[in-house]
Design a protein that fits this description.
Layout lengths: L2 H18 L3 H12 L2 H29 L2 H24 L6 H18 L7 H10 L2 H5 L2 H14 L3 H12 L2 H29 L2 H25 L1
Helix pairs in contact: 1-9, 1-10, 1-11, 2-3, 2-5, 2-8, 2-10, 3-8, 3-9, 3-10, 4-9, 4-11, 9-10
């Protein structure tokens, strides 16, 4: 494995873990896993995050072909500094740390009430028997899988981590960025699904945001120094 792949992998892995822990999609996966089969929630969330990571890396890989590599490098450097300052601001802002968890839980509760209003409790046993008789492929494309996929995919769209992945793939080896991103997403989502709300509520968003901010600024400094050296 080449040095560029390893460098892209490690940067992407560190960035993804610190960006995703305590994120809205992290909380959504934790809460959904308490209400639905974990394997369906995990597979739906992971599928969405893998698709998003690959799409973001492709955009980042294509960017130097549309704009000069020099300009994409400068833009990436500015993005790293911008995201670093953004994360530090979030870390020191006065908003409560549980606010994002409460917001996600309230939204999912509203969705749950809307769903239960359309169904009867009498058919629960029959539904479970039908689910067990379904082929595995059919189960993975159940409403629960699609719900986990759509919530995660659209929750990540335009998010800081997606834009950072695009910038990283434009500056580093895209293959390494994809591998690191998928590994980081898998670690965070698995932790959210297995740990549930109890784990999510114990995470200090301030510490995570502070760590992420420092990491982004380090990436920005490294990117700036590589520009000066060249």
């Amino acid at each position: 494995m080449s040095l560029s792949v390893v460098q892209g992998f490690t940067k992407s892995l560190a960035m993804t873990v610190l960006s995703e822990i305590g994120d809205k999609t992290f909380f959504a996966a934790a809460i959904l896993a308490m209400r639905h089969p974990r394997r369906l929630v995990l597979s739906g969330c992971l599928a969405a995050l893998i698709v998003m990571t690959i799409l973001s890396a492709l955009v980042g890989w294509a960017a130097p072909n549309l704009i000069s590599r020099k300009w994409t490098h400068h833009i990436t450097t500015l993005l790293f500094f911008g995201f670093g300052l953004w994360s530090l601001w979030e870390a020191f802002s006065e908003e409560g740390e549980a606010e994002e968890l409460a917001e996600v839980e309230a939204k999912l509760n509203a969705d749950l009430k809307a769903d239960t209003g359309k169904s009867k409790d009498n058919g629960k046993i029959d539904d479970e028997l039908k689910k067990q008789q379904r082929p595995i492929l059919t189960q993975f494309f159940s409403p629960i899988f699609l719900k986990a996929f759509s919530i995660t995919f659209f929750g990540e769209w335009g998010d800081k981590s997606q834009l950072a992945t695009i910038g990283l793939a434009a500056d580093e080896n895209p293959f390494g960025v994809v591998l690191g991103g998928i590994m980081g997403q898998a670690l965070c989502t698995t932790a959210a699904v297995l740990g549930g709300k109890s784990l999510a509520s114990q995470i200090s968003e301030r510490i995570v945001a502070l760590s992420g901010g420092v990491l982004f600024i380090i990436f920005g400094i490294q990117s700036f120094l590589s520009t000066v050296e060249s």
